[in-house]
Amino acid sequence: DAGVIQSPRHEVTEMGQEVTLRCKPISGHDYLFWYRQTMMRGLELLIYFNNNVPIDDSGMPEDRFSAKMPNASFSTLKIQPSEPRDSAVYFCASSFRVSNSPLHFGNGTRLTVT
Amino acid sequence: EDQVTQSPEALRLQEGESSSLNCSYTVSGLRGLFWYRQDPGKGPEFLFTLYSAGEEKEKERLKATLTKKESFLHITAPKPEDSATYLCAVRRQGAQKLVFGQGTRLTINP
């Protein structure tokens, strides 16, 4: 398996623009997670899905952020409108439900909002 | 609220100089403690899961141990390729998400 695939790898946008990040989880995994990593706050969970259904979105910063998982092989994280403080690396991860399995991470999208 | 604190923030060692990284945690009912390695520009890569106090796991030059309040990642005779940020995370009973510490940035000088 190719692992978790994220696109784009880098995104530079201007404040106020819409940004869409994409993720393809590992085939067969039941859970999908979106994390954000910054120097100040480390890795923070934004939202996670189980079988395409959002389970916990308490980490989503505000209404400007939204996430969807229309099917088992695709998820998006959208920021509209974007702000400079959204600049960070956004990671997608997936895991099996059974036996306390670890999360497998993609290589992230580095977002810069100017 | 689950909390994970890692120390030190950064550690610089000479090649072959063994040391340990610390991960202190507070969680209501530990289901698992996870160690990850993260290289620059990459996502975290899974290393170990520890489930209960007293458990140990080994992989090459790395050994992870667990007590009721903390975990240690021991690095024996490290090589420059062991340079990375090491992240610790906890999963509580009944949950699926991981709560991460801030990480320890390890540099091994040749």
Task: Describe how the helices and strands are arranged.
The complex is a heterodimer of chains A (about 110) and B (about 110).
Chain A: E1 5-7, E2 10-13, E3 19-24, E4 31-38, E5 42-50, E6 53-56, E7 65-71, E8 74-79, E9 88-95, E10 104-105, E11 109-113
Parallel strand pairs in A: 2-11
Antiparallel strand pairs in A: 1-3, 3-8, 4-5, 4-9, 5-6, 7-8, 9-10, 9-11
Chain B: E1 3-7, E2 10-14, E3 19-26, E4 30-38, E5 45-50, E6 56-59, E7 62-66, E8 70-75, E9 84-92, E10 99-100, E11 104-109
What can you tell me about this protein's structure?
The complex is a heterodimer of chains A (114) and B (110). Chain A is 0% helix and 54% strand. Chain A contains no helices and 11 strands. In chain A, a hairpin with a 2-residue loop joins strand 5 (42-50) and strand 6. The mean pLDDT of chain A is 95. Chain B is built from no helices and 11 strands. Chain B has strands at residues 3-7, 10-14, 19-26, 30-38, 45-50, 56-59, 62-66, 70-75, 84-92, 99-100, 104-109. Chain B is globular, with a radius of gyration of 13 Å. The interface between A and B is medium-sized, with 22 and 23 residues.
Structure in a nutshell:
The complex is a heterodimer of chains A (114) and B (110). By secondary structure, chain A is an all-beta fold.
Descriptive tags:
heterodimer, A: 114 residues, mainly beta, 7-stranded mixed β-sheet, 4-stranded antiparallel β-sheet, 0% helix, B: 110 residues, 6-stranded mixed β-sheet, 11 strands
